[in-house]
Amino acid sequence: MRSRRHAAAAIAALALFLTAPALGQVALTAKQSDALAAYDRALADFKAILAERRGQIEAKQPLPNLPGQALYLARVAVISSYKDLTDALPSRIGRPNKFEIPPAYFDADIEPLVDEYARLFEIMEAPPANAQNSATPFKDVVDLAVAIARAEGLAPVDAKAAGRISLGLFFAETNGKQNVRNGRSNTYMGSFQTGPSEDRNGRRKWEAIKSEIAAADPELSARDDKEEARARGTDHRFNHWTNVRDGLMNAHADLFREIPAIVKTLPDPIDQMKLFELIQIVPTPTRSALMSGDLLNYRVSSPTIMKHLRNNSIFAFGQADRARTSASFREILGAMWLFNRKFERAMAKYAELKPR
What pTM was computed for the model? Predict the structure, then answer.
């Protein structure tokens, strides 16, 4: 009888122990409770918009204008609120995730939701029916970049760097998918995500060096003539070759001349890709930084520039990051961690190619 009473008392004590705050279930502060509630709301909203878009697509219902914008903002809110939660409650920082997002920003348990996010964007951004694909989309990017770089006077080793960097841009802009549309914009389209004016400007610049390209590389020039004829009368942004060509000519060709100096300052190939991606995002301050003679310490503080960075997933997540009013290029490159996986894929693809 006594042993049964002892056993019952022990069980009761164990039950009390397992429900007591002493087992790591310490009471949360008001700030921690608010952060947890905010994350739970953001996660619920993210799940809801994913389910809504999936339901619309499967029911073949019309999608709203810019159907990816609500998805994008919901994903930003999830990452932001999780960073605020881990700032308030560091014990919530968990295991690494397959997206290589710093664990303080992302709960690896929600990886399947981000996979669904990517699948939905792939559907919403599918190329139009008349898009003109290439059978060699990755090689095209490298060949065009190398030819342009050589025309700009670069030595072969630096022209190869231009090809590798440009392949990184292709992955940064579209995850290496050709002729895609844009779920968040009605302006930027194609393999290099250019607007109509950027496409026209790139075409004009290409015409200015076309004879030089033809003399140096007749085979590439013949391919260009073929693609121009193929794209005639259509939106050149949905011919992979012409969109890559014009995108590179519009924004990057003249800066290829700076590659020797860039490689010395940024020996990591992924950092080189990040810098050229910043030419896409914030061209004016990036050019100024390159010309300053002190690239990594060059600082930007314009509210407009900081807004553009945030709109491209740089300093976009969590109250602490979003409160920043300025940043050096060293800090900006460090904050571009969402691009790391894309650039690693570009490096792997480049290694498979045999550039001309």
Answer: 0.89
